[in-house]
Amino acid sequence: MSQGRLFQDTPVGPVGFRYQNDFITSEEEQKLLKEFQKIPLKTWIHKGYESKKKIRSYTKETGFPEFLKPLFKRTAHFAGILPSSIHHALITEYSPGTSIGWHRDGEAEVVIGISFGSAVPFRLRKLPEKFDAKSNKRKWEHMTVLAEPRSIYIMSGESVSRWQHSISSVPDWRYSLTIRTMEK
Predict the structure, then answer these.
(1) Tell me: the pLDDT tens digits for 34-51?
(2) Is residue 10 pLDDT above 60, yes or no?
(3) How far apart are CA 128 and CA 38, in angstroms?
(4) How far apart are CA 12 and CA 104, in angstroms?
């Protein structure tokens, strides 16, 4: 698949993937960024390596910050899920130059991301099950969406289970809020 911009209800991309610009207003973005900046974030360590990104994780069991609850309700409505199905939220701060490698959110049923600050290419790829007859190799399907500030993406079904995603190096400060419903 080629690079492109996706808009609500555009049937492009993986099954179960939706993207929409301007999910929140500039004013809402600024209010949420101020709240994010009050939260003590920790450097993310993955497989023994220290990342450039900082995070704060919340679960349904430990409780979510009050300032996120109205956004959860609106996000759940947009995603077609119940607010009570949200089991995890992750606030991530990306300093300039930070990227995220290819991965899948394997435990999640639905993954919702809201972008704040810098725009960033959100990349998706899927390894087909069959070999390409000409090259005798398996070829990845690719797609890139420019995740604009204040935008939202939703991944469910095949876009969670069969597709990986990553982000390129961010040009400037960026935050994201990732919301997950988890398999039981």
Answers:
(1) 999 999 999 988 777 788
(2) no
(3) 43
(4) 20
Name which of 101, 117, 103, 114 is nearest 169 in CA terms. Answer: 101
Task: Put the strands of the sheet holding 100-103 in their side by side order.
Answer: 100-103, 164-167, 120-126, 141-147
Claim: this prediction has a pTM higher than 0.85: yes
Closest CA to 153 of 110, 102, 103: 110
Residues 6 or more apart whose Cβ sits within 8 Å of residue 154: 16, 17, 18, 19, 78, 79, 110, 111, 112
CA dist., res. 100 & res. 144, Å (int): 14
Q: Is 13 left (phi over 0), alpha (psi -120 to 50) or beta?
A: left
The pLDDT of 121-134, averaged and rounded, is: 80
Q: What is the dihedral of CA 70, 104, 154, 131, to 10 degrees?
A: 180
- Tens digits of per-residue pLDDT, 24-34? 999 999 999 99
Q: Which residues are 2's β-sheet partners?
A: none
